[in-house]
Each structure stands twice: as C-alpha cells, then as structure tokens.
Amino acid sequence: MLNFIFYWYKVIEATEVALNKCKSKSDYETVISFRAKAFIHQEKWQEAEQEIQKLKEYAPLRNVYYLEGFLNRKQRKNQDAINSYLEARRYGRDDEALNRELGHCYFFVGEYEKANNCVQKVLQRQQDRKRVNFYALDLQAQIAIALGDEDLALGSIDQLRDIDESAYYYRKSRFEFLLGDKNVAEQCAEKAKSSNKNPRFQTLAHLALCKIVNEKVDEAENILNEIDQNQQFGKTNLDIRKGLRTRLAIARKKYEDAFHLSNEIRDRTSRSYKNIRRDVLQGYLNTCALPDSERIKLNAELTRLRTELININEADLTPEIDNYFDLD
C-alpha cells in the first residue's frame, strides 16, 4: 500500500508491453484482466469497461462477469454488481473471491441473511484449510453489528487483531461509533491510524468523521488535508472526500459553503448523501437569503429527503466509508 495508485499505473505500462508478447488465450486473459483491474482501481470506468469487453474474446464468461461485478461494486452500484456476480456463479464460478464480493454487495443493499450465507461459505472453506481471511472476518463483524449481535461482532473484531492491528482498531472504532460512543470511537480511530505507517483511505476518512462529530473541526480539517495530499490515494474516492468536507462546513455552520460542496457530490443515491444534503438544506434555508423560486425548490427537496430518511436509523447513515476496503 506504500503507493497504491502508482502501482496500478505501473501495471498499465507493463501490460501494454505484455500484450505484444501474448501467445495464447490464457495469456491474453491474464493481461487484460490486470489492465481492467488497474483502470478500476484508478476509477477510470470507461477504460475498464473497454477492457472487460475485450476480455469476452479470451476468457470464460464466469470470469468476465466477475470483473464486471467488480467494476460495478467499485462504482457503488451494488445491485448491478450482485446481478453480475450471480451471472458469474451461473456460469460456474463459486470460489472464495466470488462469495466474498457477493456477500459484501448484499451487505450494502441491506440483505444481511444473504450476505451472511456468502461469508459463512468463505469462512468454512478457509477453516477446512486452517487459515483465516481478513475480509471475510471483517464482513462478518459488519453483518453482526448491523443485526445487533454485539457478542458475534466483538468476537469477529477480536480475531482481526492477530491479522491486522490497524484494521482491528478501525473496525472497533466503527463498532463504537455506531453504538453511539463517539469519543471511544475517536480513540480507536487514532490507534488505527498510528498502528499503520501508511494508513488506508477509510482509516483516515473515518477518523476525520469522528473529529467532525466530536466538534474538533480544526483537527478534522488537518486529516482531510492529509488525505488530499497523499499521493497513494490519487484522485480517487472524491465523493467521500466531498461528503466529509461538506460535513465539516456544516459543523462550522458555514451553510453556503456546505451547499456548494454538496452540489459537487456525484452519487446522489446513497443514504449518506441524502443525510448530508438534508442537513445542508436545513441550515442553508434557515440562514441564507434566497429568491422565492429557489427557496420553494429547495424546500421541496428538503421535504422529499426527510420523507426518504424517516424510517432509517441514524447509525445506518455512514456505512459508505466501509466500502473503501478494497477486496481485490
């Protein structure tokens, strides 16, 4: 992870040379698959889609659909990803990677039973081989948290400590955050950061969120600046960055800034965006002078958002950060 984005740039350079040396369909499948993944990790969606289309000439459909699912998941299109992964399964792929990815997507659309079935498949296969997969354990912890099974959640989280200490503190922080103890969550998030000399994106993003909700706005801004200056992250995950900047502006009661920042968020379908946008509009409408036509339009948007969020628990409104644990 020292320079994750740089690595994928180098993969693309290397595979451009390797394409000229391919001698079999298997060679082409390997090289094109690497190129597709590299573009996906850089969030170059169109280029990735083009590589996946090329792959159809050289790879079994089960592998084409798997990569298509990966592309959809990385774009947060979890239902589309589920459909692609199910096609991969229909064509004969049912390995740990498929079930891990599919379980992850089921979790993010709220189908916890199906998510759990997938993760248990992975854990059982790994138990048979006497090894443990970090991502499967982490997903099991997330499912347990969502279902309110604190004992299973803590048991899964504790097992993470022997695999990845930073990830252990990150997941424990998320656990405490969702239970409502934001101060303990911040302490754990700090430990997640300090226990890894190259903290993951979601570690820093969650720490910034903890600082914001605990009203430590200057510290939060420093962390967000650290994210933006980190070449390891490149120009990826821009929506989550904009979302956190918007939350920071709200915390500072700079509602006009928050309004303009929220307008820059691209994915407006997530619960997290809707929660942020609702809070922005409440402050913006209460503090800013606006033309009547604009006020009417924004009040209608605010009413719609309040209706959409009325039956959603506040603890369910920040899961998108979890979507940044790369699974492949």
State the main characteristics.
mainly alpha, about 75% helix, single chain, about 325 residues, disordered C terminus, globular
Topology record:
Blueprint: H1 4-19, H2 25-41, H3 45-55, H4 61-74, H5 78-90, H6 96-108, H7 112-128, H8 134-147, H9 150-160, H10 165-179, H11 182-194, H12 201-213, H13 217-229, H14 238-251, H15 255-263, H16 271-287, H17 292-309
Helix pairs in contact: 1-2, 2-3, 2-4, 3-4, 4-5, 5-6, 6-7, 6-8, 7-8, 8-9, 9-10, 10-11, 10-12, 11-12, 12-13, 12-14, 13-14, 14-15, 14-16, 15-16, 16-17
Structure, described:
The protein has helices at 4-19, 25-41, 45-55, 61-74, 78-90, 96-108, 112-128, 134-147, 150-160, 165-179, 182-194, 201-213, 217-229, 238-251, 255-263, 271-287, 292-309. The chain is mainly alpha-helical. Helix 10 (165-179) runs antiparallel to helix 11 (182-194). It is globular, with a radius of gyration of 21 Å. The two termini are 13 Å apart.
Summarize the structure.
This protein has helices spanning 4-19, 25-41, 45-55, 61-74, 78-90, 96-108, 112-128, 134-147, 150-160, 165-179, 182-194, 201-213, 217-229, 238-251, 255-263, 271-287, 292-309. It is mainly α and 328 residues long. Helix 5 packs antiparallel against helix 6 (96-108).
Radius of gyration: 21 Å
Q: Which whole number gives the mean pLDDT? A: 88
Beta-strand percentage?
under 5%
- List the helices and strands in order: HHHHHHHHHHHHHHHHH
Helix content: over 70%
Count of helices?
17
- 3D shape: globular
